[in-house]
Amino acid sequence: PVDGHPKIKSFLDIERHNHGVRFALHVVNTGNKSVEIDFPNGQAYDFVVLDSLGQTVWRWARGRVFTQPTQIKYLGGGQEFAVAENWTNPPGPGTYTAVAMLTSTNVPVGERTTFTVQ
Hints:
Layout: E1 8-17, E2 20-29, E3 35-39, E4 45-50, E5 56-59, E6 71-75, E7 80-88, E8 94-102, E9 110-117
Antiparallel strand pairs: 1-2, 2-7, 3-6, 4-5, 4-8, 8-9
């Protein structure tokens, strides 16, 4: 459970393929009541890849422009919200850490998983 939001669970799927890595962040409302998730702008999530030294080697949101208006996502009881992006052409073999997060101001969701690229 996320601190302050015991009815929210999240997990990160990582799938390696020929041209890179696919990241999917899943956020599930395990309760019966709807949850309001507030975002300060058009960016609802981000994915970051860190190398073995903790340096950022890829960030999905880098260089992107997002709308300024706030947005709200309602997640009903039992519903799932999922986002996914691809990291194409990683720099080379190695061990990396994927960090996936919602950019929400009221529901702090973040997952971190180590994976390898061969």
